Amino acid sequence: MKKLTAMWEQTTDFLLAKKKILIPVVYILLASVPFLGLSQYFIRVLCLIGIYAILTMSLNLIAGYMGQTSMGHAALYCLGGYFSALLGSKLGWPFWITMLFGIAGGALGGLILGLSTMRLSGSYLAVITLAFAEVVEMVVLNWNSVTNGPLGVRNIPRPSIFGWELTTSNGGFYWLMLVLVTIAILVSICVVNSKFGRAVRAIKEDELAAKLMGVHTASYKVQTIVLSGAMAGMAGAFYASMNRYIDANSFNFDISMTILCIVIFGGLGSIPGMIVGSALLIAFPEVLRSLSDYRFVVYGLLLIFMMRFRPQGLLGGLSKKPYKLPAGVSRPKGQSEAERGKQVG
Question: What is the DSSP string of 69-97?
Fold first, then answer.
């Protein structure tokens, strides 16, 4: 097993070293997928992978960078989907406007959740997020005059660009998915490489130490959950328009668990891990249809295997490269990393 782990780490290190070449090549290959004559079903599965990649990157902000557990992330996804779907279906607003409201809906849900949990952490936060998801589901099911209750929302309009309607058959939805996933990646990268991201990661490592260093931990927690909710709301708006029908069952507890499983499997704090994990765990039930009813059994076994042999996840783990200091800060000359580690210890 150690040899396999070493080979895997060598492979990932090689890919990271060549990322400036690989990323443009991968994007060109992905952009050309609709021209391959694939079925609508296959394109739809790829769109679902993109949706879950956005959702896992949004949860990764909370779980991977801030170190908090959310078991009700589907609630933010639901709010984004319903805000966008209701405005498009009942008022006839175009998708590009309703998507902005979907993002705002997810952010609003994140704000409510963040304000409710800014003093909490660990298992307490997990229970509150689970309760929040149940409240959102009950509101959606019982507010018949607005959400149509268990009947759901139908005839959700598709996006169009200069009269060209985006569908799975013409590849429009697939290209839109690539754009949205790219936006989610850029947002995640900007968060990681900013002062905000360093403060959030400090909360994960030691919240008390972060407070003593002047980090307003409660404020950063709320902001992180709001940003996560906005990204989840964007995914919800896209899903509603692609599916053209949503109901409360589209955002149930199973969805929250699937998102959480992918984050753990891909690797906490790893953006590539979210994408690879989404591709593997979302494609699995579609490729092996006979085992789709047992997907959570397979997910559970995978997580047990990962926790035993690779607890940091598929592409997670600490980087072996020296920490990149902020602009204007330099290390003392003539001192090795090991010597500095001894001094700190």
Answer: --S-THHHHHHHHHHHHHHHHHS---HHH
Say if residue 320's pLDDT is above 60.
no
pTM reported for the whole predicted model: 0.86
Amino acid at 242: M
SS (H, E, C) the chain: CHHHHHHHHHHHHHHHHCHHHHHHHHHHHHHCHHHHCCCHHHHHHHHHHHHHHHHHHHHHHHHHHCCCCCCCCHHHHHHHHHHHHHHHHHCCCCHHHHHHHHHHHHHHHHHHHHHHHCCCCCHHHHHHHHHHHHHHHHHHHHCHHHHCHHHCEECCCCCEECCEECCCCCCHHHHHHHHHHHHHHHHHHHHHCCHHHHHHHHHHHCHHHHHHCCCCHHHHHHHHHHHHHHHHHHHHHHHHHHHCEECHHHHCHHHHHHHHHHHHHHCCCCHHHHHHHHHHHHHHHHHCHHHHHHHHHHHHHHHHHHHHHCCCCCCCCCCCCCCCCCCCCCCCCCCCHHHHHHHHC
C-alpha 168/C-alpha 238 separation (Å) is: 12
A 10 A CB-CB count for 59 gives 25
Work out the pLDDT band at 329, boundaries 50, 70, 90.
low
Beta bridge partners of 153: 246
- How far the first Cα of the chain sits from its last, in Å, is 32
136-174 confidence digits (pLDDT tens): 999 999 999 889 888 989 989 899 888 888 888 888 899
d(CA 21, CA 23): 6
pLDDT in tens, 258-295: 898 899 888 888 888 899 889 988 887 766 666 666 77
